Amino acid sequence: MSSYGLGIDIGGTQLRAALVAADGTIVERDRRPTPADDPTTLVRTLSQLIEALRERADQPLPVGIGMAGLVTGDGVVRYGPNIGVRDLPLAAALHEAVGGRVVVANDASVAALGEQRAGAGSAVKDLILVTIGTGVGGGLVVGGRLLTGASGFAGEVGHVVVAEHGRPCPCGNRGCLEAYASGSAIGALARDRLVDPATVTSLRDLDHVAGPDVTAAARSGDRVAVEVLEEAGGWLGVAMASMVNVLDPQLILLGGGAAEAAAPWMLAPTRRTMAAHLVGSAWREPPPVELAVLGDDAGVVGAGLLALEPATASGSEQDA
Ligand SMILES: [Zn+2]
Hints:
9 helices, globular
């Protein structure tokens, strides 16, 4: 059995790869630009990346891959929104190209595994990771194992419905958490507040208010910006209450750039609102809500560790 897993995080702009030891330590890194909208070039570039790292490690490394979107149990990326991929049999194509074990899972799911094994969740077996960036992703670790569901699609925390008939979500539905607490949603919530001419805020001076503008304004003490982030935090708390009622995790982690930037204003309302909506809230302690710690490395670390999991582990794969 290999002592290292090769973890790859397929991002919208970069393919990040790392050689990951069983304790989650990164011992080697590499990266390539993500080829845009071309599955054939994507598979070829990934193959080159895998072969380069296997050569340096001088051993047949199992490969784990995290990618945004819906990844099925047999390694087909049904829908990869970042790079316009549809129905790509990624695990099979890479297994054919480079051989060995290839496991593919959703990017936020593998990040959750990374945080649980080697990050902010290393002391617990059950956690929910919510990643907040342009959108909202999520991953679930239950009993120390990644929960991917019957089809591989579990963990889409961003599409927990918090308001039926609510704000439109990029997924096509309405009222999803992503429409209230993503970086994009924070910008949209702020723009809505500008409709009232009586609202006094520094955001009014900007052409098009986006999420980072809101956190920047909150840092300068803008009251409206702070209220928007508190509102987003409250919606996150609503979604987390449902998640905790179903899964009873030990810990909730928030990761992603927008979460880090907005945490000073979002965390308290998230915790408060979640606690208020838990079943039997007078008789239990709500799980802590904390920031993740692995940052951009969570994906490669989790993907590398997923590759090292026993073959019965959940996640889509092609074995040697
Ligand atoms: Zn949605």
